What we know:
0% strand; mainly alpha
Amino acid sequence: MLFIGGAFASGFVAFLAARLVRGQPVAGMLAVPLPVLFLLVLGFLGHNGLYVTALRYAPAAQVNLISYLWPLLMVTILALSGVATPTRRQLFGSLLGFAGLAWFVSPGSGDGSMFGYVLAFSAALCFAAYSALRAKVAGGPADAAGTACGVAALVALSLHLVFGSDTPIEIEPEAILAMVLVGVGPMGLANLLWDYGVRYGDGRVLSTLAYLTPVLSTLLLVGLELATLTSQVLIGGGLILGGIALSAAGGKQS
Length: 254
């Protein structure tokens, strides 16, 4: 949680700096309604915090793939909340994508890592709920994600103080640089763009495009030698890509 807290803090500082550069009052960014702020923090911190914790209890490849069930869950929540009605192609595409993810995970389901899998699924559920409901829970400035980063940083650092290790931590310059880069990039700019997308875009299309993420992230794990490119990965990736193509075609229908 220390790294996540530091990264979110870096993102918050970046948003503040952007406000100052534009000559806009900082108070404008902080004027975020509580329901919106709760939803943003749930998505940002809930997803990242549970994902990192899950890595302690289960293999990285499985955790990564389970955590990216959120596009499938997003389609389900959109349908249940009445925000959007998925087409038959999108529903079938979602099932196909889910089958691909299940193909990845099922061989390791009995290795004693179930707690990690539950945490990873909870991470997916947090981000799916935020992404699906953000358009319905409207309000706040365009850079409300900056305030959410600040609150997420406070919560993450508080959790580290309460549940973290008593061992003294030596923060190296490389770790600080990584915090800043992650905070400004994936936890800052990326969250800002995604928040704008789910507020004003088509949630079904966004969730469909997001199916590509687990494939790319799995290839990255393979490149870093944290996972092996096997026939299982190729078949699962093919199912997911098939789901993407089918759901994207279905998104053009009324």
